User: Fold this.
Amino acid sequence: MNAPDLSAVRVLVVGDVMLDRYWFGEVNRISPEAPVPVVKVDRGEERLGGAANVARNARSLGAATALLSVVGDDEAGGAIERLLAAEGISAGLQRDPQVATTIKLRVIGRQQQLLRIDFENAPGREALAGKLAEFERRLPGSQVVILSDYGKGGLTHITRMIEMARGAGKPVLVDPKGDDYARYRGATLLTPNRAEFRQVAGGWSSEEELALKAQRLRQELALEALLVTRSEEGMTLFREHGVLHVPTVAREVFDVSGAGDTVIATLGVMLAAGEGFEAAMHWANRAAGIVVGKLGTAVVHPEELFGTADARNPQ
Assistant:
């Protein structure tokens, strides 16, 4: 399988963005106040998270990428804007002074995550309405739409966005959250992970039962395809005319943070480049195997994805 040409791909990402902050330090003793390690922080790092990480992954593969979201009128929102600009991502960020930008702070000691602290609340209605209007303006210039739902309130109008995009003939990929999948009806492809799918469809005791539940959900939501990512078990694609499973290609799992972002970004870029579902899934599976070998929210570059012989034949 030859590497596709991604130079003309145009992707529109919409969803919940966040700022991933990392504090790195040494751990040499236990606190006398409680049985917890003491981390002497010696450096910090900021990365794009959530839908912004999806956009970053699409951009890293070479696609022209636009991102729509809502952030607070605060320091963290400004940091996200700067990081997006540095990546060459066209950002339409609505500033809402009534909310604080979502921050996930991770404390790392001896290359292990010791603690995560979340700061978040939901955006206001005015900011969300402004995002829907800009979505309508940007839609004609995009080849594929990716909706990244982290359950933070930024995709209140997702049903309308799906209708608008499908009406314009654009494929819509959704990374879902929660147990209300009816709001994703009519999307082209959903990409729940194993736990998210189980939350909606219930458990299964065999591959046959999994396929039955997946196809039922796909039909109920009028999806062209449903992709269930299954961690160490790989990923499984369910379509009207069959099921395709590929095993994981991860050589070493270091950190699964943001792996779902990499999967849906790669899928979207590949579909926009003219690849079919099967080829797009193979590339996404390979990209996921690469990114889980990196610390924190990370991206895959074309030379990593396409640069070796086995990458060109990901069977």
In short: Residues 277-291 form the longest helix (15 residues). Residues 309-315 have pLDDT under 50 and may be disordered. The longest strand covers residues 17-30. Residues 54 and 261 are 5 Å apart (CA to CA).
